Amino acid sequence: MTFIINGEEQEIAATTLADLLSALDYEGEWLATAVNGELVHREDRAGFTLGARDRIEILSPMQGG
Amino acid sequence: MLKLYDTEVRSRLLLGTARYPSPTILAEAVRRAKAEIVTVSLRRETAGGKAGGAFFELIHALGVHVLPNTAGCHSVQEAVLTARMAREVFRTDWIKLEVIGHHDTLQPDVFGLVEAARILTGEGFQVFPYTTDDLVVAEKLVEAGCRVLMPWCAPIGSAMGPVNPMALRAFRAHFPDVPLIVDAGIGRPSHAAGVMELGYDAVLLNTAVAGAGDPAAMAEAFALAIDAGRLAHAAVPLEPRDMAVPSTPVIGKAVFS
C-alpha cells in the first residue's frame, strides 16, 4: 500500500501502524506517531489499521531551544 | 526555590540543547550552568528511531527536567499535535508552547498562542507560553490556564538583549504572582543580570550559550550573572537620578580659603 511517511511517498506492505514501523525498522520507545493529523498512542499502534495514502508522521527527540 | 506548576527547582537558568558543537560540550554546559531544566524538541525521525533515542539518553543521563517545545509550528493545529506527540515521547505535561507568526522575526502569533494554550490546558498540559511583552495577550494566557509566562526580550537568537526594558518592567509589575521567565533575545550575561534585577524569576537561553566560543564557560557565566541579578533585585537597587549626589559626606570638610 502507498503511504505518505514523513512527507515522502512510500510503498510498504503493512496493514497496521505497528506493522509499518516494524517494516521500516523503526524501533525504540522514543517515537511518537500520528496518522492524518491525529496522535496514535504507542499502545494503539498494533490495532490501528492503515488506509491507502494515509499521512504518517514519525517523530523522535532532538535538540531544541 | 522557583516553583513552576508543581515542580520546584533551585536553578533560575533554563537551558536550550540546540546548536552546541558536540553532545559532550552540551552536557558540560548543562553541568556548569547547574541547570535543572532543559528544552528539547521533536523532529521527523529518519534513522529507524535510533538518532532521537541516543539524544534522549544523553539528556536523561544529565538527570534534569525536560521541557519539550513546539518550535517551528506556525499554526494552532500543528502546535497542539506536536504537544500531544511530545507528551507521548517525553512523558511530561510540560510544554513550551510556540506558535510562530512571522518568518523573519519569529514573533509569536499571539492569537494562535492563546487558542492553543486554551486547548492544551484543557487537556491537562502545563503550558509555558513563549509570548511577547504585551500585557493584554498575557492576561488572556493566564485566563486560558497558563501559570507561567515567558515573554521575549528581543527576537529569538538575536542576542540583542532587552530592547524594551520599560515593557518588561510593566509586565513584572502587572503579574506579581506569576512566575515570569524571559525567553529569547538574551545575548550576554549582563542582559540576564539586567532582567533578573527587574525582578524576573528566571531566564531561558540557548544560542547565547551554544554559540559562544566556549559554551560551557559561558553557561557558568550566565548562571553567576543570573544569581547576581536576583540578589541585586532582592537588595533593592537605587533608581537612576538626573543630578549628581556626592557619595562622600561634605559635613566637616576643611575650608582652605
Question: How many strand units of chain A?
Answer: 5
* Helix and strand composition category of chain B: alpha/beta
What characterizes the major β-sheet of chain A? 5 strands, mixed
Helix fraction of chain A, binned, reads 10-25%
Query: What's the oligomerization state?
Result: heterodimer
Low-confidence stretches of chain A: none
* Beta-strand residue percentage of chain B: 15-25%
How many domains in all of chain B? 1
* Mean pLDDT over all positions of chain B: 95
Q: Report the total helices of chain A.
A: 1
What does it look like?
The complex is a heterodimer of chains A (65) and B (257). The relative contact order of chain A is 0.30. By secondary structure, chain A is mainly β. In chain A, a hairpin with a 2-residue loop joins β1 and β2 (8-11). The model of chain A has no long low-confidence stretch (mean pLDDT 95). Chain A has a five-stranded mixed β-sheet, with no helix packed on it. Chain A has one helix spanning 17-23; strands spanning 2-5, 8-11, 32-35, 38-40, 55-63. Chain A starts with a strand and ends with a strand. Chain A has one domain: Ubiquitin-like (UB roll) (Roll), CATH 3.10.20.30. Chain A contains one helix and five strands. Chain B has helices at 23-33, 50-62, 76-90, 110-122, 135-143, 165-174, 189-197, 207-210, 215-234; strands spanning 2-4, 7-9, 13-16, 37-44, 65-68, 94-97, 126-131, 150-151, 181-183, 202-205. Chain B is an alpha/beta fold. Chain B is globular, with a radius of gyration of 20 Å. In chain B, the strands form three sheets. Chain B has a five-stranded parallel β-sheet with strand order 5-4-3-10-9. The mean pLDDT of chain B is 95. Chain B has one domain: TIM Barrel. Chain B has nine helices and ten strands. In chain B, β7 (126-131), α5 and β8 (150-151) form a beta-alpha-beta unit. The A-B interface holds A 6-7, 24-34, 37-39, 41-42, 57-65 and B 16-20, 26, 39-46, 48-53, 55-56, 59, 68-69, 71, 77, 81-82, 84-86, 88-90, 156-157, 206-207. Chain B: InterPro entries: Aldolase_TIM (IPR013785), Thiazole_synthase_ThiG (IPR033983), ThiG (IPR008867). Chain B: It is an enzyme of class 2 (transferase). Chain B: Residues 4-249 form the Thiazole synthase ThiG domain.
